[in-house]
TrEMBL record, chain A:
It is found in: Cell membrane. InterPro entries: MetI-like, MetI-like_sf. It comes from the Bacteria. Keywords: Cell membrane, Membrane, Transmembrane, Transmembrane helix, Transport. Its main location: membrane. This is Carbohydrate ABC transporter permease. It is a multi-pass membrane protein. Residues 68-259 form the ABC transmembrane type-1 domain. It comes from Paenibacillus mendelii. The chain crosses the membrane at residues 7-28, 64-91, 103-127, 139-157, 178-200, 238-259. PROSITE patterns: ABC_TM1.
UniProtKB/TrEMBL annotation, chain B:
It comes from the Bacteria. The keyword Glycoprotein does not apply. Its main location: other. This is ABC transporter substrate-binding protein. Keywords: Signal, Transport. Belongs to the bacterial solute-binding protein 1 family. Residues 1-23 form the signal peptide. The keyword Cytoplasm does not apply.
Amino acid sequence: MKLAIRILRSMLMIALMLIFIFPFFWMISTSLKTYIESIQFPPAMLPKSLQFSNYVEAWVRVKFFHFGLNSIIVTVLTMAGQLFVCVPAAYAFARKKFALSGFFFALVLVDLMLPAQVTFVPIYVLLSDFGWIDTYQGLIIPFTYSSFAIFFMTQAFKQINNELLDAAKLDKATELKIMIRIMLPIAKPYIITVMLFTAIGKWNDYFWTLILTNSESVRTLPIAVKGLLDVGDGVNQWNISMAGNVLLMAPILVLYLFANRFIKNAFVYGGIK
Amino acid sequence: MRPTVKKMSSIALVGTIIAGLFAGCGTSDSKANNAGQVGSGDGGKQEKVVVDMWSIWDSSNSNGKYLFDAAKQFNEANPGIEVVVSGQGGYDGVAEKLEAALVAKKTPVIAQIEESFLTRYHPVAADLSQYMSKEAIDNYIEGLTRSSYVDGIFKAAPMNRSTPILYLNADLLKAAGLPAEGPKTWDELYEFAKKAAQPNKEIYGFASHWDSDAWFWESAVYSYGGEIVSEDGSKVEFGNEKGWKIVELWQNMVKEKAMFSPYGSQDSQSDLVKQKFMEGKAAMMLDSTGSLGPLLKESQPFDLQVAFQPAGEKNSMVTGGANMIILDSATEEQKKAAGKFFEFLASDDFVVSFFKNSGYFPITKSSLETEAIQALYKEFPQYKVGIDQLQYAHKRPWQKNWRAMYTTIVEDLRLALIDTNQDPKQLIQKAAEKSQQIMDENK
C-alpha cells in the first residue's frame, strides 16, 4: 500500500513538473524554429533544423548590451534600495510600538491590494513634476518602497524569539546592531526570497518602465523584447520573439538556481511556524 | 573586527555606486530631458533643435528599425536638428502615453498615431501646411489623406499605411475550377468559398477575423454603402442592414464550413488566420496589405495572388496604419524641424525603401513613378493591387470615442462567430445602441 502511494505521488510530481516545464520547453523549441514552423498547425514539437540565427537576430535587434545594462542598473539598485528602506520599516512594524503604527501598517496593506492601474496617472504626474520621467531615479526610487517586502519581512521578524532580543538588549546592543547582527542573519532566507521576487519583478517589469520612460536612454530589456513583436498589422515572428525571451529569462533562471535553497527554506520554515 | 570592516566597506561601496550612478544619470538623461526643448549641441558650439518623436515601434521592431535609421540619416544631413525617436508600445501605447502626457503638459513634438485617432487629438495638432511645402503635401496619395483633414486643415501626414485586400491561393481556386482572379463581390466570395472548401481535407474556402479594432467589419460596412457614424460624428449609423449584412454572410459561411473562424481560441486571431492560409488550408484570406511583404518573402508552397477587397454595393474600403502629427505645444523651431523631417520621410528614397522592406504602402505619388517601384511591380504585380484599390478609400469614423466604441463592437462581432446562431440584426443593433451611449456620455 505504501509503495502504491509512493508511486502515485511520484507520478503526480512528474505530471506537475511537466506542466511547469512545458512552457519553457515550448519557448526554447519555438526559438529554434523557422517562421513557417513556428506557426504550423498541428504544431511541431521540435524544429527540423536548429535555427541559432534567430538568437543572433534577436540579440542584434534588441541591442542587448544597452538595454541589458539598464536592466542590471535598475534591478540591482532597486534591490539595494529596498534593503535600506523596507528592512528597517519591517523591523519597526514587527518589534516597535509607536504612535499610529497600526494605521501605517494598514496603509501598507491597502497599498498591497491596490492595482497599479489605479495609481499610475497620479504617480506619472507627480514624477513628471519632479522631472523624473525618463531618468534612473524615476525607475528606482519610488520602487525602493514595496508593500509586499515590508509585509513579508514584518511577518518574518515577528517570528523571531523574544529571548534572543532580550539577551541582546541586556548586552546594551543598539537597535541598529540588533537589526543587523541578530535579525538579519536569522531572517536571511526571507530577505533573500523577497530580494529574488524584487529582482524578478523589476527585471521583467514592462508596465511601469513603459509609463515612466519616453526614450531608450534608460529603458530596460522587456520593452526592447516586446518590440520584437509586430504592432498588430503585420506578421509576428514568434521564433525571433521567443529567442529574445530566452535571452531575457536566462539571467533570472541562473539567479534562481543560486537562490533556490533559500526560497525553499523561507517557505518551509514559515509553514512549520 | 574583521567582519565589521568588511561590512562597512561593502556598505560604502554600494553607497558610492548609488551616488555615482545618480550623479552619472544626470548627464545620460540630459538628452532625454532636453527632448521637447531647444537643447545645446556638442560642446555648446551650436544650438541644436531637439525633436522627440513618439513612435508605435521600438527600435527592436522589424519595421521600427527603418524609422530609427531614417532619423539617424536625417540628423547627419541636418546638423542643427536632432530627431530622437522612441517607441511607446504600439498603437494603444502611444495613445495612452499621450493622454498622460497631455495631463502632465509634457508632450513630444511628433506623435505617430493610428489614423482614426486624429479625431481625438486634432485640437492639439498643428496645421502641417505651415511647416511643410505645398508640393510635399500634394504629393501624398490622395486616398491616404482622407482622414488627415480637419475643417480643411491638413493635420496628419501619412506614415505606415495599409488597407485590407483579399489574398488568394490561386492553386486551390484553380483546383476547384474557379478563376484565379478571385471574387469581385461578397456574394461571389460566398460562392467561391463554398466551391473551394474541402471539409474532408480540412481545407476552408475563406479565412478571416474582425481584427481587434473591428477594422475588417468597418471596411465591409463601407462596401455595403453604410457609415459608422454621421458626418458630424454625433449619431451612430450602422444599426441597420448595412451594418449586419457582412456578419450574417460570415456566419453562414462558418455554419457551412466554408469559412475558418479563429474565434473560440485563445490565440492571436490574426496569426491563426495567416497560419491557415500559409499552410494551404484556406483558399482566400482577408488581411492587411501590411502582411504582403513578409508573406511574399517567405518561400511560397503555392501561387499567392491578391485581389481587391470584395464589394457589397460598391468598392469602398477602410485604410489603416498610422499618421504623424506635430503637437502644437512645441516651439516654432521644433515644429519647423519636424516638418522638415516629415518631408524627409516623404522623399522618394525613404518611401521606396520603407515600402520594399515593410510591405506598407508607398505613400507618395512621385514614388510610384520611380524605377525601383516599377521594377518591383514587374517582379511582384501583387503589390500594385492594394495601391490601385486606394482610389476607393473611405474616411475613418469621425468620433473621438471611436476607440471605446470599437472595443465594445468587436465583442458583439466576436460573439457572432463563436455562436453562429446569434441573430446578427440584434447583435449589431445592440452594438449600435451601446456605441451611441458611449458617444452621448462622453461628448
